[in-house]
Structures are given as structure tokens and as C-alpha cells.
Write a structure and sequence with these properties.
The protein is α/β, with parallel strands linked by helices. It contains nine helices and ten strands.
């Protein structure tokens, strides 16, 4: 029994040592994984030293015939302005970040979701559709299981955003915008009043052009400090931040208040 346990431990250690993904995680280095669908793709960059993920979705990324997956993955990283060693996994449908976030947010209450996700990761590595070993994908999924949707930063993927230099934000109060998409009267004004009391510079408080079911936090710079402060001030820590550096705005961040926004936070 003891010998069997020792052999199992040695086998696990060997798998970790020979897995490039595991080695990067050990060294607290970034792990880049391109999830490649037939007509869409997502580049995920796991910042293992900080426990955060930058996600770059490409909704229309149909490859030319004959282009190998490894080259597609490298092309994605270049378009996202995040070149470097990149791994890939091919899937039959469009990558669904929402499904991943749902699993990460709910698996602690529903442990079967973790087992299902771990089994999928292992099978994907064993299928031959990835250049990551089954153990490597399992290790990466296990790292992701420590996170939830709020640890993801969803970045815009326009080419220009990777090429144009960004202006540094001036020091001082976080400059933000508030838009009411909930259908509730005066919600933008009430939220702006709360944020100003907390030291924010609210430059816009207005109705949004359409109704939205879900509240969103937008960042207009790769420096997400303003977006993080705004998210925390409104009790929205569970939300991912959608980063749009190519969208020109004098604000550092904005919130679009959807129907799900809990306005009781404004009375705290």
C-alpha cells in the first residue's frame, strides 16, 4: 500500500514537472490558452501570480484553410497585443465564456459542476485536439476553480487597441459615468449622488439608450483601477470588468445599471 502511494506521488510529480503549463504556474508566469472554435475564438491569459484572467474574445475569426491550430493561436495572441508562448485547444462550437463563469460561480454550491468541468478538461487534453496534456488542462482548470467571474477582465480585441498608445490618467478622483438601463426612475441620479459622496467624479448620469437585464461595468483603459473602485463601491464584486481601451472616453470607467441592480446598496 505504501509503495503504491509512493509510486502515485512520484507519477504526479513527474506529470507536473513535464507539463509546460504546470511549470508556468509554479513560476507564477502567465499562461496563454487559445480556445479555437470554427468561426470564433477566445484567448485567455491566466496571470498565475495574481489569480486573474484577461479574456480576449474574437467573434469572427474564421481561419484560412490549411492554417494549423498552433498558428491560429499565435495569430490570436498577436491581434490581442499579448504575444508570447501560447497553447491551444480546439472545440466544435463557439467558445462560451458565460458557461465557464457559471461553473466557476456555482461549483462550490454544486460540487458536481467541478467534477464535470474537470472531466471535460481531462478528456479535452486526451482527445488530441489540444497541445496541452490532460494533466496540464486539469491543472489549469483547477487553478480557474479558485476564481469566479469577477476575476476575469473581458478585453476588446480591435487591432487599433493594441497599436495606439494610451494616455495616462490624471491623478485624482476616479472619473466615471452612470447610465440607467433598468427602467427605474431616477436611478442614475441617485447612484451618481452616492458615488460623489464616496469621492468619485461623476461626469455623466443619464438614461441608457435601451433596457438591459444585467448590470455591466466598463473600463476605458488597460489601467482598471477606476473600474475596480466603481465595482466595489456599488457592491458588484461578482461582475467581470469589460475593458474597452479603444473606445474613446474622458471617463476611466462606466456602469450600466440593469434590471438586476440592487439599489439597496445606495442606502448604506
Amino acid at each position: 500500500m505504501l509503495a503504491a502511494g509512493l509510486l502515485a506521488a512520484l507519477a504526479l510529480a513527474a506529470a507536473q514537472y513535464f507539463s509546460p503549463v504546470s511549470r508556468l504556474i509554479w513560476k507564477n508566469q502567465d499562461v496563454r490558452l487559445a480556445v479555437l472554435g470554427e468561426r470564433a475564438a477566445v484567448l485567455m491569459v491566466y496571470h498565475s501570480g495574481h489569480g486573474k484572467v484577461s479574456a480576449f474574445p474574437f467573434q469572427a475569426f474564421k481561419p484560412k484553410k490549411g492554417v494549423p491550430p498552433g498558428q491560429r493561436a499565435a495569430d490570436l495572441a498577436a491581434l490581442a497585443g499579448n504575444a508570447g508562448e501560447v497553447f491551444h485547444i480546439c472545440v466544435s462550437s463557439a467558445p462560451d465564456l458565460g458557461a465557464l463563469w457559471g461553473t466557476l460561480n456555482r461549483w462550490r454550491a454544486e460540487p458536481a459542476l467541478f467534477l464535470k468541468g474537470a472531466a471535460w478538461a481531462w478528456a479535452a487534453g486526451a482527445s488530441g485536439n489540444s497541445d496541452v496534456s490532460p494533466f496540464g488542462l486539469f491543472a489549469l482548470f483547477s487553478e480557474f476553480a479558485r476564481l469566479d467571474a469577477s476575476d476575469f477582465f473581458l478585453a476588446e480585441t480591435a487591432k487599433a487597441s493594441a497599436q495606439e498608445p494610451e494616455e495616462e490618467e490624471e491623478a485624482g478622483p476616479a472619473r466615471v459615468e452612470v447610465f440607467n438601463a433598468s427602467g427605474r426612475k431616477d436611478l442614475a441620479a441617485l447612484t451618481a449622488k452616492k458615488l460623489r459622496a464616496l469621492g468619485f467624479d461623476v461626469i455623466t448620469a443619464a438614461s441608457y439608450h435601451k433596457a438591459e437585464r444585467q448590470t455591466r461595468i466598463l473600463g476605458f483603459s488597460r489601467d482598471t483601477a477606476a473600474a475596480l473602485r466603481l465595482r466595489s463601491a456599488l457592491g458588484l464584486e461578482e461582475l467581470e470588468i469589460r475593458v474597452r481601451p479603444s473606445q474613446k472616453s474622458v471617463a476611466g470607467a462606466a456602469v450600466i445599471l440593469g434590471e438586476d441592480f440592487n439599489d439597496s446598496v445606495l442606502n448604506r
